[in-house]
Fold this protein.
Amino acid sequence: MITDAEPIVTARIGKPQSWTLQSYLDNGGYDGLRKALTMEPGQVGEEVLGANLLGRGGAGFEAGKKWGMLRKAQPVYLVVNGDESEPCTFKDHMLLEEDPHQVIEGTLICAYAVGASQAFIYVRGEFALGLERLSAALNEAYAFGAVGGNILGSGFSIDVVVHPGAGAYICGEETALLESLEGKRGYPRDKPPYFPAAIGLYKAPTIVNNVETVSNLPWIVLNGGKAFAGLGVGRSAGTRLFSLAGHVKRPANYEIEMAKTTFRDLIYDPRLGGGIREDNELKAFVPGGVSAPWFGPDQLDMPLDQDAVGKAGSMLGSGSVVAMDDTTCMVRAAWRITRFFHRESCGQCTPCREGGGWLDKIMRRIELGEGREADLDLLLDVCDNIAPGLSWPPQKTTICVLGPSIPSSITSGIRMFRDEFLVHIKEGRCPFGR
Amino acid sequence: MADDPVQITVDGKAMEAKPGEMVIAAAERGGVYIPRFCWHPRMRPVGMCRMCLVEIKGPRGFALMPACYVPVADGQEVVTDSPKVKKAQDGVLEFLLINHPLDCPVCDRGGECPLQDQTFAFGPGESRFVEEKRHWAKPIPISPLVHLDRERCIQCSRCTRFADEVAGDAMIDFVGRADMTEVNTFPGRPFISNFSGNIVQICPVGALLATPYRFRARPWDLDVVESTCTFCAVGCRMALQSSSNRLIRHLGVDSDPVNHGWLCDRGRFGYEMVDNPARLRNPLVRTGDQLVEASWNEAMTAVAQGLRRVRDSAGADAVAVLGGARLANEDAYAWAKLAKGVLGTDNVDCQMGDGLPAEVVLGLPRATIDEACGADAVLLLAPDLKEELPVFYLRLREQAVEGNLKLIELSPQGTGLSTHAELRLRYRPGEAAAVARALAAERVPEEGAGGVSAEDIGRAAEVLAAAGSVVIVLGRPSLAESADTIVDAAGVLAAALPRATFLSALRRGNVHGALDMGLAPGILPGRVSLDDGREWFTQAWGQVPASRGLDAGGILEAAAAGRIQALVLVGADPACDFPDRALAATALANVGFTVVVDLFGPTPPGGSGSHTRADVVLPVAGYGERPGTTTNMEGRVSRLNQKVTAPGTSRPDWMVAADLALRLGADLGFDSLDDIALEIERLAPSHAGLTPQLLARPGYRDGVMVPLADGRPTEADRPREAIEVRANQAHLGNVLPENDPDSDARLDPLAGAPAPPVAAPPMGRPPVIRFRPGAAPPKAPPVDAYSLRLVSGRNLYDAATAVQRSPSLAPLAPGPCLRANPADLARMGVTTGDRVRVSSSRKSLVVDVAADARVLRGSAVLAFNAPGEGAAELIDATQPVTDVRVETVKAT
Amino acid sequence: MARLTAENVQRARQLIALYPQSRSALIPILHIAQEQDGWLTPDAMAHVAELLEVDPAEVYGTASFYDMLFTHPVGRHLVSICTNLACLLNGADELLEHAEERLGIAAGGTTPDGEFTLEEVECIAFCGAAPCLAVNWRFFGNVGNDDFDQLVDDLAAGRLADDVPPHGTLCRVRRRVGLTAGGPPGTATDEGSKSPQDTAT
Ligand SMILES: Cc1cc2nc3c(=O)[nH]c(=O)nc-3n(C[C@H](O)[C@H](O)[C@H](O)COP(=O)(O)O)c2cc1C
Ligand code: SF4
Ligand code: FES
């Protein structure tokens, strides 16, 4: 079912020059900030807590709760995560290009609520246009008086810096992102400490929130946390952007009310995905970024609900849904994903660094027709040595969850399409002819 | 209490752990060894290799966690032996092996490789990895001393962390990402660090290789013994390894109070000097222009005759003994007894005019390295510690970087610690005492002092006043200024900061032991003055000199004037080391009779240097060739052990002294090291209670601080198991024999010795010396506008024998290069890269020049003893400071 | 090989001033260096190391972690074809093959005239328009073989010069103001202005 909930973060997208200050102001821009500045910072936090706003970066942690975990120390930093690199996720890319002022306004509200002394928006380096639009918007916002000293006459001062990344998926992981922001190699930090809210940027307490997460803040402040929580179901509150890609007729970002809509709606509804291309059969789909274990057609009626998907052994993750039709070679698909993780491993943890490379090599062999009988067990055992038990959410032998995400596609592939793997091995070739 | 131990359970065993320590360390102390590669107890944990995964109970039940990264907590439950742990660890091991080459048989590390051992112990029998392994170009040199084999690297980051965190030389880093991560340098910039060898030692595989050691030995063929490094005064504990009676490798041993397992490269590779085939094998005696090999009997007869002739004709004061810092304590004692008790001369000095008077070093309240590192503020009135006392530099740096102590650097030039200093007080050469007076003054003079601004002095005074504990590291900030000004400054500071303690920054190997043993004018063994100890030692020895003698400078001046006619150089090379080579050369030319007691003859044969003029050269045993004890900068006495035999007929220095005494008609009264050690214990007041048996105890492997308190060591013992050595040092513990007290006794040549023939005199021991400041020395004259005031210190690698006789180190010594402030150079019309003529009243040299903004205007920095030419040629030791003129040399 | 120009040193110092710790400016400055020379020359990296008071090895090690930073020369046009899942499902492998043929180089290679470098990349977050590619990080979607040929022709002829600046130029919008909020205590500017000379005496 598609509800008629008003879009929240994409309301202005499509408006002419939506990325300019003028257009933003014409469409209610910075009203949320203005209102927030009349409230106590704690009140803003209360609203967000009440909104049940789940983080949109992948881990799905409640934003309000995270803010409450800040270690009491000065200075506090805010880092907005715009590194969007989870394959097939392209929503933050759009938000940064089409509505950069909304990102800035959300950043400012968050900074006010958590008492940050400086905010950084870490933008994936490849987003050249996004960087240009956001930088131009920030210049406008400074000139407008919404950023900098005594913003909008409120007495609150905050600087915002747009920081470009330089091409490394792992820098989306929040602690790697902080290392990268400190000018270092993007190595995720080991735990403990468990959260940047305790020890983050420059060892100071730090909030890291996703671009889409903060983009919701102006609306929440204007309309109240209750209104947001009233959308969706339970913990899966509000609307959420889904990046739909793969073999659908209408691949695009769709903002829909959470939990009320199902994967079937998203993929097949003519206003959304519009069905599978050439009306082929759906073979499997990725429910939340390539880190997530796959679902089959039997799970199409699952609602886009974080907890429901979690219970079913996968995740909504980054909000990326990729449909694969029956012409897809699942070995090739899984291999491609494995190769991605292999290349993008930061290289710290032995299981991820070496295991990723090894799995890539085995998958390659199978796809190219050089697989052996023993390879499936070997694959599973190697996966098990990276993510013991092969459960989801995974157990780890590594520092961050990139490592234990590597097995997702392989174990999904073997679980759902064992025969297809075996055909590759037995026939010594890819039955899909590549 | 924050420091109360916490209780944890490991595999069902209850253990006590120190708060803040990691599970891996606590478990190990409790007897459960958790495998690891990246963890190193002396560096911050990173939890990267994942080898140490164990199950630790958290709020959501047991989970796999890296034992090296999880701190202990009260009530914590840890499981290291479950099937889940085993599978995870086996998995990591297999992952590490898939791309690891199978070249153990040709790998230096083979046989002492943690990866290999783990694999043998737990690894899978057969590889499931059938694809091509990762390839890198085979060993590449990353520095003159280190090769890197990237195929063997397991990316544990120990080396890069050491370089960055510990040494502060971040010249190696990870390059690339994922499984194509390699360790490397910036293109074309090698890892030139004084500490590069440490990365070889802590590499858990054979990826980093010491170039001098490559392919030279298999670990199982190596014999090993623990000893103390005497290449400088830090006194790092090290393992000496030999094969076929040749020293072949030094490894750092983790001594908690001293070196934390680190060594500098000079100490690590300095065994090459001992192992040098050019070592003397037999005595040499002058016949006309030639030094020819002779028997010991012939040589000793010649020495005795020569000395007796001078003493009988010109008196005992015409005889002088220079040197002693190379010796073990027992050797030094024997030579002191010979010189002062038999020959009757007090013209004895173990320093070469580049140190400080014994009264200052021995007589100020002293600090240990730990106390300096634990102080709130440290005042450095010392040379560049990175170059002269390298591992002490590492220890201090660590604390300064962590922000645990405030460094105030009082020095005429920048040093390795400058960037970590809270305040850098750059004084005009020769004017340290003026700054010290201003620091001590009620009100800082408005115009500042000695070239340092009033503001900086004021801030330094505040830091010192606010500090609960202050340690002053005292040495010679520059050899081109007179020691008197430093002595003066020390006196002022001691009076102004009554709670401050001093740590001596004299660099030469066992110089502190030699001073303790009385190898200095006006001093008798055990840190007593000649006057205070006269009665005691006259009773014990029969005689002591009538009055205070000359120090090295005085001896050389007297020799130049013909008043000293016989000179014994015991491991001394004044022609090279004395900071006024002109004076040294004249002195050596004028002395009638010269005896050299050393490892090498003239360098090169027939060339320059002190030994060229020798009448007799006596070959002696070097480092690792004789047992004994040595004393470091703190006054910590630790044991030297013998690993190889000395070449030819070389013998220990004390035997030379004892033999010579007999030939001079006296008996030193000892036939063995045990005898000497026990005599020292009995006669030297500062060493009372320091028995060989005490030093042989496993708890005192790190040494004992002297003086003891009522015969008891002032520090708790630190029993150090060999296992700890293994854990810290990548690997070597399994071959260290010094494990149980029994083997200690067996190894210890001093244990169980009979009482010495010389008894303690029946009277109270004389008091240990206290420093009393004297009159302020003459002030340095103002610098004239055309000159620059010279500043000079040593580099780790220079023209000294220990470096030049070590083939791997000799090429590392930088050539002479004069550094001056760009503004001064511009005024003189010279720029970096030019050749300049530098002239002092002594000599004129032609050297390269470099602009360096860190050099104070009006001064010029030139290394003391660079190969080729150094500041030693320019310095006029009779002046408070040395000024030089600099002019361009037209390119030819 | 070039160190940073005076103007770029100026830009670098402005960037340093934006951060509480100067090393944070490393990646932004490396983008400037890459804008200057098209890639990171050793001299430029060494110069950046001087500006940030870190060892050149740390600059090199850090740069080498990131795919967008090149420590070897690349062409004026960096053609980055995504072959990750969404693109793979929509013919990216075929597009890459075509591109290799059209440009006469394998992925990773550079044309002899230095005009084009071709690389196969991970998802560039343009999956709604798969298969897609980027040229100097300007995005092109739904690229068929003919579209690719046309694109290459246009680039070679300079017809896209306004939209696609030379490789290395990332963000053409410069920040107009420094920090104006006052900043947290003990930060930004004093670190930033510290040069080796200043720390001398
Ligand atoms: C391997 C990995 C990659 C990640 N990539 C991103 C990313 O590109 N963007 C993002 O916002 N969060 C990413 N995350 C999640 C972040 O770590 C973090 O949870 C998030 O930025 C927090 O913001 P939120 O609470 O608003 O979602 C990633 C996490 C992992 C483990
Ligand atoms: S799991 Fe992989 S990506 Fe994450 S820290 Fe470890 S090596 Fe890096
Ligand atoms: S991860 Fe603990 S020793 Fe390496």
Remarks:
- The helical segments of chain C are 6-16, 26-37, 42-52, 56-63, 85-88, 92-103, 145-156, 189-192.
- The first helix of chain C runs from residue 6 to 16.
- The two ends of chain C are 32 Å apart (CA to CA).
